Amino acid sequence: MKGFSARAWPPFVDGAGDGESMRVVFLGAPGVGKGTQADRIAAQYHVAKISTGDLLREAVRTRTTLGLEAKSYMDQGGLVPDAVVIGLVREKLADPSCANGFVLDGFPRTVPQAEALGTVLVSKGITLDRVVNFQVSREDVVRRLSGRRSCPKCQATFHLDFAPSKMDGICDRCGEPLVQRSDDRREAIEMRLKVYDEQTAPLVRYYDERQLLFPMDASGGVDVVFGHLSQELAQYQAI
Ligand code: AMP
Questions:
Q1: Closest atom of ligand 1 to CA, residue 109
Q2: Is 211 a member of any domain?
Q3: Residue 30 within any structural domain of the chain
Q4: Does 144 contact ligand 1 (Cβ within 6 A)?
Q5: Separation of 29 CA from ligand 1 center, angstroms?
Q6: Is residue 72 part of a domain?
Q7: Ligand 1 mean position to 138 CA, how many Å?
């Protein structure tokens, strides 16, 4: 168990990990590649990936009450209310699959969400190891999002230019026709970036003040970014 920093509340820790687990947050604008890197880090270090976007899309797809509530916010590129996503994440963190740690992808996205996360972690007697801030130019973000195609069935993602599927419009993994996410349309992209600037960007400072922030240049290819990230996070892996 790590010692707590006296300065910050909830009590976060600075310094190297203790090798018991990896508990990290991936922060960054939509389209910076957080989800792809979260998949790879989760697979490499045997930790759970918790993506609120994936959880919400699954709820929409299966038409749960929560999904029906979330859909209109998501289609317009707005944020789903804090209470809904906080509840989802709290439930996931209690799952045994998080025993080795977790990568939170797309959560927290607002200061109240970050505070709620802090409270949940304190109640479990655990702390965050690192918050990785993925950085890519605005131009690249728009290019990445507008060319993205996803599989509605297995959630695999492709890109028309950078990572095309082998057969045009068909998922390599499960053969399902690929779709453009409704929130990857241009108007929704603009809205999502505006929401990011207003509500999520303040978290950079929030976590920097808690000495958890790791700035990550994510403008390179997937393998290059993964190499750097993996090097940084290796110190937190379970032993
Ligand atoms: P993402 O796949 O992370 O880009 O998320 C897709 C959409 O799901 C977002 O544009 C939001 O509408 C919603 N969403 C995902 N995560 C959150 C969150 N932490 N808080 C509020 N809404 C979220």
A1: 19
A2: yes
A3: yes
A4: no
A5: 11
A6: yes
A7: 18
Which CATH number characterizes residue 116's domain?
A: 3.40.50.300
28 Cβ inside 6 Å of ligand 1: no
The distance in angstroms from the start CA to the end CA of the chain is 14
Q: 201 CA to middle of ligand 1, Å?
A: 14
pLDDT band at 9 (very low <50, low <70, confident <90, very high): very low
Candidate from 1-15, 106-120, 170-184 with smallest mean pLDDT: 1-15
Total number of domains constituting the chain: 1
Q: Is the pLDDT of residue 7 over 50?
A: no
Q: What is the pLDDT of residue 152?
A: 87
Q: Could you tell me the distance, in angstroms and rounded to a whole number, from the CA of residue 53 to the centre of ligand 1?
A: 5
Is 10 among the domain residues?
A: no
Per-residue pLDDT, averaged over 169-176, amounts to: 96
Q: Is 79 in the pocket of ligand 1 (CB under 6 A)?
A: yes
Q: Indicate if ligand 1 lies below 6 Å from the C-beta of 77.
A: yes
Contact predicate 82/30, CB 8 Å: no
Of residues 237 and 29, more confidently modeled: 29
4 Cβ contact partners less than 8 Å away, ≥ 6 residues apart = 11, 12, 13, 127
> Which positions are catalytic?
34, 109, 148, 181, 192
pLDDT band at 113 (very low <50, low <70, confident <90, very high): very high
Q: Is the pTM of this model over 0.70?
A: yes
Q: Can you tell me the distance from the alpha carbon of 149 to that of 144, in angstroms, rounded to the nearest whole number?
A: 10
Provide the residue range defining the domain that includes 24: 17-136+199-234
User: ∠ CA 156-103-234 to the nearest 5 degrees?
Assistant: 110
